[in-house]
Amino acid sequence: MARPTKPQVAFQGELGAFSHAAARQFFGEEVQVTPCATFVQVFDALKCNAVTHAVIPIENTLHGSVHENYDHLLAYGLPIVGETTLRISHQLIAMPGTRFKDISRVLSHPVALNQCLHFFEKHPSIERVPHYDTAGSVKTLSIERTPHSAAIASRAAAEIYGGIILKRDIEDDRQNFTRFFLLSHHVPKVMAGKSSGWKTSLVFATPNKPGSLFKAIACFALRDLNLTKIESRPLRGSPWEYMFYVDLIGHSEEDAVAHALRNLQEITSFLKVFGSYQPTP
User: Fold this and answer.
1) Could you give the residue numbers annotated as active site?
2) Mapping DSSP to helix (H, G, I), strand (E, B) and coil, where does residue 211 land?
3) In 3-state terms, what secondary structure has residue 248?
4) In sequence order, what DSSP letters do the residues of 33-81 get, joined into one string?
5) Any residues with CB less than 8 A from the CB of 14 and at least 6 apart, and which?
6) Angle (deg, nearest 10), helices 39-47 and 67-76
7) What are phi and psi of 156, to 5 degrees?
């Protein structure tokens, strides 16, 4: 009998990125990972079975939705099989021997820089330098040993690349969380009577007619289904028309959800269910 394949998880960024931490929340500290430079490479790795899973950020409580990944979900059609939420805590990291008073520039991903604006207001002489990745900015410091430089990233990034933390938890808002999706070709089966605690994500488009969106939402409201998110995105090829991304409580195989989806299919011009999944604490 063949042994089960160990999870191999692709994510965007370097080792120590917040997506790496999300992969650990799904599979444990020793998970095998494949860092990728771009989100497209993450989706491609899973599509061609170079990895068994992919982890992607989908929404941040301060920055909002990661629209690029919504577009990739639709284009690639890879199922969502899990969800987790990660507290985002930013550290000011430098290489050993660097003192805070000597710092004149700080590298990090633009989103991370924008989540630490109060820090830069207190220290206006420090230059903000956009970088491709939070953990990657610490990796760059460890390689280039650029003087008078620091980075904003996670505690894990400091540990991995031999950095020291000069200032802890410098984000503006402590209620800073990012939601991550777990993608895989292997969709978990629902055991009989075990459909509670699930969420379902989908996207649909409606005809450009009065009342179309109201009728679509009514498919869920009339069955007492709770929508936890709805967001519009432009419908490519149809200017000023939109698709609607929806998350709801329930599994697509539950009677109420299944009936709602069948009703929705009848009145929409397009419908795709991305998957049903159980959030991981």
Assistant:
1) 178, 180
2) coil
3) strand
4) EEEESSHHHHHHHHHTTSSSEEEEEEEETTTEE-HHHHHHHHHH-PPEE
5) 20, 35, 133, 135, 136, 139, 157
6) 20
7) -60, -40
**Cβ neighbours of 202 (radius 10 Å):** 20
Contact 75, 30 (CB under 8 A): no
Question: What are the phi and psi torsion angles at 33 (to 5°)?
Answer: -130, 155
Dist. CA 91–CA 37, nearest whole Å: 22
SS3 238: coil
d(CA 155, CA 194): 37
Burial of 180 (0-12, 13-18, 19+ CB in 10 A): buried
Dihedral through CA 85, CA 89, CA 94, CA 99, nearest 10? -170
Q: Which helix (DSSP H) or strand (DSSP E) does residue 232 occupy?
A: strand 227-234
pLDDT in tens, the chain (281 residues): 344 468 999 999 999 999 999 999 999 998 999 999 999 999 999 999 999 999 999 999 988 899 999 999 999 999 999 999 999 999 999 999 999 999 999 999 999 999 999 999 999 999 999 999 999 999 999 999 988 999 999 999 999 999 999 999 999 999 999 999 999 998 877 654 555 789 999 999 998 889 999 999 999 999 999 999 999 999 888 888 899 999 999 999 999 999 999 999 999 999 999 999 999 87
Task: Return d(Cα 61, Cα 236) in angstroms, integer.
Answer: 27
* Beta-carbon contacts of residue 247 (< 8 Å; ≥ 6 apart): 199, 200, 201, 227, 228, 229, 230
